[in-house]
Amino acid sequence: MNTLPVRINPRQDQIIRLVRSQGYVSNEDLAQQFDVAVQTIRRDIGFLAEQGLLTRHHGGATPNSTIENIAYNERQILNLKAKDAIGRCAAALIPDRSSLFINIGTTTEAFARSLGGHRDLRVVTNNLHVASLISGRPDFRTVICAGELRPKDGAILGAAAIETLDSFRTEYGVIGISGIAEDGTLLDFDLSEIQCARTILRNSQRVLLLADHTKFSRLPMGRVGGLADIDDLITDRPVSEEFKVLLDAANVTLHIAKISQ
Questions:
Q1: N or C: which end of the chain has fewer CB within 10 A?
Q2: pTM
Q3: Mean pLDDT over all residues of the chain?
């Protein structure tokens, strides 16, 4: 049986484009951008979700894909102020003369940029951009993982990277993530990234998870771990009461970063 093509209006077309480029867009942000009521945006998103063009969430929408991350150059500018705030907040938790892992991601890169006031750190990383950001510090000792370089985002992955990470035991593990499920499951897209992150979790005395609010609406298919594997969650917006209960049960400390205006 032939089906008619789905007809969408120009605003709905722009909503699809924004969601695909940003990974998550809230109803409030869309309403402000298009100068319409939030209820209008909810109807648009509901219709588009029914057509399979995006995924509806409480408060906003995300792309449908669970197998492919947003492009690195788009992630660099997505929620930049929030990521910088998270980076500063996380950096304040790291004492001078500490040892730490730093993994892949634009939020962990924001964290690395916030380490300028620290002294005598020992850093192990599989993120080439992180290594570059801290390379000018003569009092930092930086170990870059061996392995295969992924040019699109500076990630160093593969068996050699895992072996390098597994050769160290640090006081802190600072990791980013691609998604967090409602039950607290930590999710990511790429198996090699997941294996590296698990190695960091296993070899860190205290784990700091850096995740802006959009990560709570993204559901990649790969499981990294759970809330029991981390000690601190640093994010930019308050979490739901239900999620706060999960954090308390897992003995995770929640930090809400303050975004500079």
A1: N
A2: 0.76
A3: 89
